[in-house]
Write a structure and sequence with these properties.
The chain has 217 residues and is of the alpha+beta class. Helices cover 43% and strands 13% of the residues. The protein contains 9 helices and 4 strands.
Length: 217
């Protein structure tokens, strides 16, 4: 008897999520799961989909991509990406004389968590709008959506990133810390602290000097 498949976006009942104990941001080890397609570099995985565009849908797909790439909808999408917290980037390409469509992205953590997280945010609606122009797509919330993605996913022959050990959460944190430190550097109080003889021992340490060098680079 075939196993009962739940809809996407419910980690409590999704059969691919039952044994999931971590995401890319926790730093723990994941238990063994069924192998998913895609190539990894460090903590980052790539996701590449090739699909057939429905006859006569290329212009509508192009219009939807243009609509979804700007304005308030784009702001909502970026907020959703923050909520998901694992997506590094994504690309949409129409090719082969308007007959085929490619979506590719890179993300942190589990393949199944990545798909489920999209289904739970406004990004799921964006996916539904775009992939509705592709042959056979059942809908982002349909129980067969993951099977459709697997059937249309092609692992990259080579996938390399500049920072394979940094998750998006770590990148955002580093950016926030850098901005906060830059604000401190600009204060007169910080300059006075550097010039205060009482702090000479701290300021002279290799670690503090390295911090100042990195900040001024």
């Amino acid at each position: 008897m075939a196993p009962h498949v739940r809809a996407l976006g419910d980690p409590r009942t999704d059969p691919w999520q039952e044994n999931l104990t971590m995401t890319a941001t926790t730093g723990g080890a994941q238990p063994a799961q069924s192998k998913r397609p895609g190539t990894t570099d460090g903590v980052i995985s790539e996701f590449t989909i090739f699909a057939e565009i429905k006859p006569g849908h290329a212009d509508a797909l192009r219009e939807d991509l243009a609509t979804l790439s700007g304005g308030k909808d784009d702001e909502r999408a970026r907020a959703a990406l923050r909520e998901i917290g694992t997506l590094h980037e994504g690309r949409h390409v129409i090719f082969d004389n308007d007959t085929r469509f490619m979506f590719c992205s890179s993300f942190d953590g589990s393949w199944d968590t990545y798909i489920d997280d999209f289904a739970k945010t406004v990004m799921g609606d964006r996916f539904a709008t775009i992939f509705a122009h592709c042959e056979g797509f059942p809908g982002i919330h349909d129980p067969g959506a993951k099977d459709w993605f697997v059937a249309h996913q092609e692992p990259a022959g080579l996938f390399i990133t500049s920072s394979p050990d940094l998750t998006m959460q770590q990148i955002w944190k580093d950016h926030r810390v850098d901005e906060a430190f830059e604000e401190v550097l600009d204060t007169s109080e910080f300059r006075a602290m550097l010039d205060n003889p009482a702090n000479a021992e701290l300021v002279g340490t290799p670690a503090f000097q390295k911090l100042l060098e990195e900040a001024s680079a």
